[in-house]
Amino acid sequence: MEGTSYQRFPKIKIRVVKDDYMEFELRETDASIANALRRVMIAEVPTIAIDLVEIEVNSSVLNDEFIAHRLGLIPLISERAMAMRFSRDCDACDGDGQCEFCSVEFHLRAKCINDQTLEVASKDLISSDHTVIPVDYPDSATGEENKGIIIVKLRRGQELMLRAIARKGIGKDHAKWSPAATVTFMYEPEIYINEELMETLTLDQKKEFVDSCPTKVFAIDPLTDQVVVNDAEAYTYDEEVLKKAEAMGKPGLVEIHAKEDSFIFKVESTGAIKASQLVFNAIQVLKQKLDAVRLSADTVEADEQFGELGAHMRGG
Amino acid sequence: MNAPDRYERFVVPEGVSKVSYERDTKIINAASFTVEREDHTIGNILRMQLHRDDNVLFAGYKLPHPLKYKILLRIHTTSQSSPMQAYNQAIDDLDKELDHLKNEFETELARHTGKMMEY
């Protein structure tokens, strides 16, 4: 029957947004959607990473494939990634992946000429496209200039010269293409303290109860000497407080439920894509995946014809 | 030695269609859909959305083997609908839900950064 929709209307509330970290609440949707978003953020949002390395000279202490592996893991700024094509789908360059639409070229030249150890870092990678460069992590702790990710260290006389090609890919293919450092979501806890039962406890018992929780979920209000909820979200769904309440002979002292349709996401990005952009791209990629999975119009037509035939054969 | 290549997880080879289905010969209004090169990401959300449909009597998915990248989705419906209709309806509803989520996210992000700029 057409016309009835079983759609849900999710709500989002953002708590923290930084360049590489984002925390938000997702409500009124199902756990399967939250999990799908998490899986897509880790494995299916496309980024750009070095995929092909041609080494001309390498007299360093690390061998060729070791250096190539390290180069692949360097995060590159991938704002262009959603618009780029995959190398295997590119028709401009017959798929060997060296054209400007589907790849970015890098080169690196380093030779140590003095007695000081030369650190070859990601900053020494020279890109053919100035929008696709290794991620720069501003190191505010020390305050001095950040050299970037160290690839290899060279002694006097050692040299490294190579050409690298970076392509678009997804985390499912290789982890170097994953834009997410960690993506977690938890159910929002609902904590209810039974005040009547709580009154029957002495202050020492209350302190014991508060301390039995491995994280600081509860605290004792210094003014009223009551047990209050300090930080509901620190609860990790270990049931230590419930076990402690039973051990003290007071089951039902607190009741903790997980709200089934309320999730708290924490998204950390590697720097290749901004955290907010990562979530946005994840929603887009999930939509694309759903579109790819639709039944084509002719299979539905064929089914309707078969449906008639089937009904005939069954005497309907 | 026997491990399939990583790109097999998501690249559909030539000649293989992404979605195919088989009607059940013994039960009316029942069908099994085979979706190639997909995993729990799509399987679970489709299954949960199908459960919300009143006309769907049974909806379940499985990955027959973890090294063969396809999902089998089985749907039984009442005579008011058909598995194909239920499947398409579920995808449409999920698409609209994700659209709604995207718009909410955009407005919330704009509102949040606007509020941050005030400081």
Notes on the protein architecture:
The complex is a heterodimer of chains A (316) and B (119). By secondary structure, chain A is of the alpha+beta class. Chain A contains 7 helices and 12 strands. Chain A has helices at residues 31-43, 64-72, 195-199, 203-211, 240-247, 275-292, 297-313; strands spanning 11-17, 21-27, 47-58, 103-111, 118-121, 126-127, 150-154, 159-169, 180-193, 218-220, 227-229, 254-269. In chain A, the strands form 4 sheets. Chain A has a 4-stranded antiparallel beta sheet with strand order 1-2-12-9. In chain A, strands 3-8-4-6 form a 4-stranded antiparallel beta sheet, covered by helices on one side. A two-stranded antiparallel sheet of chain A has the order 5-7. In chain A, helix 1 packs across helix 6 (275-292). The relative contact order of chain A is 0.19. The mean pLDDT of chain A is 88. Chain B is α+β, with helices and mostly antiparallel strands. Chain B contains 2 helices and 4 strands. Chain B has helices at residues 40-51, 83-117, and strands spanning 19-23, 30-36, 56-62, 70-77. Chain B has a 4-stranded antiparallel beta sheet with strand order 1-2-4-3, with helices on one face. In chain B, a hairpin with a 6-residue loop joins strand 1 and strand 2 (30-36). In chain B, helix 1 (40-51) packs across helix 2 (83-117). Chain B is flat, with a radius of gyration of 19 Å. Chains A and B meet through strand 1, helix 1, helix 6 and helix 7 of A and strand 1, helix 1 and helix 2 of B. Chain B: Pfam families: RNA_pol_L_2.
What attributes characterize this protein structure?
heterodimer, A: 316 residues, alpha+beta, Gyrase A, domain 2, Alpha-Beta Plaits, RNA Polymerase Alpha Subunit, Chain A, domain 2, 3 domains, four-stranded antiparallel beta sheet, 7 helices, 25% helix, flat, B: 119 residues, 2 helices, 39% helix
